[in-house]
Model the fold of this input.
Amino acid sequence: MIALGCDHGGFELKQEIMHFLEEKKIAYRDCGTYTKDSCDYPEYAKKVAGQVLSGECEKGILICGTGIGISIAANKVKGIRAALCHDCFSAEATRLHNDANILCMGGRVIGPGLAAKIVEVFLNTPFSNDERHIRRIGMLEEE
Ligand code: RB5
Done:
């Protein structure tokens, strides 16, 4: 199960991503927002982060206008490693190296075709499990 969230700036791209996931028969949970009305991205970042941390969803996808605000908000939550990716190389690398559990994108930055490809790469790339990456991820959790 993939948790999805967006603010008004990411609403349209989230619709496209939902269509893409349906085509690929990948189950998702839409945590909102559900309209184009102006809203606050931290609320949706927290909802999706909660779904991922609880284990109800294995990964999350968050979209705002730039992807920046919603990624900052998600990364405030302990245990979340949210990666802002607007290219496939970064999407692959952040899974291999950072074991990123949330993908963030900007609905005002990229189009639906590239975004879908990024989602595909992000969801299909496993963590490398390399010792050095495990060590570095552990350091992220140190107080
Ligand atoms: C909303 O206008 C916009 O600020 C938001 O979607 C996002 O881009 C913030 O980082």
